[in-house]
Amino acid sequence: MVAKLNEFIPDAVRLSQIFSQATAPTFFLGAIAAFVSLMTSRLSVVIDRTRVLNAIPEDDQRRAHLRADLERLRRRAELLNAGILSSLRGGLCATLLLAVIFLTEFMGFKYAYGAGLLFVIATYFLGVGLFRFAQEAKISVSAADEHL
After folding, report:
1. 115-140 and 23-54 helices, crossing angle to 10°
2. In terms of residue numbers, what domain contains 120?
3. Which of 14, 43, 49, 129 could bond to 80 as cystine, CB 3.0-4.6 Å?
4. By CB neighbour count within 10 A (0-12 exposed, 13-18 middle, 19+ buried), where does 118 fall?
5. Are 99 and 67 in contact (CB under 8 A)?
6. What is the band of 141 on the pLDDT scale with cuts at 50, 70, 90?
7. Confidence (pTM)
8. Is 135 within the bounds of a domain?
9. 3 in any annotated domain
10. Which residues contact 73 (CB under 8 A, 6 or more apart)?
11. 9: which DSSP letter?
C-alpha cells in the first residue's frame, strides 16, 4: 500500500516537469486577465459617459444634441461586454487545460487527451474577444467625445 502511494506522489524532477509544461497555459491565462482588465476599464468609461449624457435634462437645448451619442455608446458597451465574456470563456478553457495537465502528469498518464483541443478552444474564444475589441475600437472615437 505504501509502495503504491509512493508511486502516486511525484518526486521533485516530475514536479519540475509538470510546472514547465504548465508555463505556457499560465502565461496565456495571464494575458487573458490583462486583456479582460483593459476591456473592463474601457467599459467603465463608456458607462460613465452614458450616465453623464443621460443626466442631461431634456430642456437643456445647449447640450441636448449630445444625447444622440447614446446609441453609439450602447453599441460600444455591447461589444466590450461580448469581448469580456468571450475572453473569460477562453480563460476558463485555459484553467481547465492547466487542471488537465496537472492531473494527467500527477496520475502518471502518458498523454493529456483533449489538451490540444482545449488550447484551440481557449485561443478561439480569445480571438473572438479580440475581434469584438477591434470592433469597439473602430467606433470608439467620435467628435461627440470632445464635447460635454
Report:
1. 30
2. 11-142
3. 43
4. buried
5. no
6. confident
7. 0.80
8. yes
9. no
10. 46, 49, 50, 53
11. S
